[in-house]
Amino acid sequence: MQLVPVLEIRHGKSVHTEPKNAFANHVVSEDPLDIIGKWVESGIKRIHYVDVDAIDAGEPCNVDLLPKIKKCHPDLCIQVVGGIKDIDSAFIWIDAGADFLVLTSKAIRRKDLLSDICVEFPGKVMVEIDSRKAEGSDSSEIDSQMIETAERLEEEGVGGLVVTEVPNQGHVTTENLLSVGKFSQNVELPIFANGGIDKLEDLEELLKSQTDKLNGIIIGKVIHNETFCLNTALKMLNQHQLT
Q1: Helix or strand or coil: residue 47?
Q2: Is the CB of residue 118 less than 8 Å from the CB of residue 107?
Q3: What tens digit of pLDDT does each residue of 192-224 get?
């Protein structure tokens, strides 16, 4: 299991956007390479790169930063989301140094697009999917439709899933994260849970649940919270994997 920090980029700067308004953001750093350098030094091996400007433009915008990141950190794995609406935009990101392309649920509704990109870049395509349980349903239940979706995407050539279990109310919590962990035990594709870690205790609870098939946890705002120690979190993960 890995911790995968979110790097949101707008106008070349590292930002944190508001969940309900991608156009309202807080600038985290004028130079994203500074933040990435600290993450890599701590032991991060993979990042979730979000091109925020692509939400508005509908095409890749913050592409020039990727070769710079790869030059400084050639072993860092980069999964990119943003502006991938056709095969040409997929080529742009891959040529810039992206290791994985993350397609949104909107993009995969275009079956021809998913198939074309998977054929062109086998094993390099990931898909974002959301899980919404009906109100009153047992959070421990595994959604059979989700499993069927995962199997279908695997047949298409998808190489991994970014899964968010969206709660009926509030924001993603540890309970939602544990549910994604259970889902990961029922599918063959690599699964990355999106969100659910607000503090170190959340990670500790997840590790106790023995969700060993979960490949990673994508962490956003909390990574910039001074009360969350990334070094400690990574040590917890390493100790768990050694036991």
Answers
A1: strand
A2: no
A3: 988 788 888 888 888 887 666 789 999 988 888
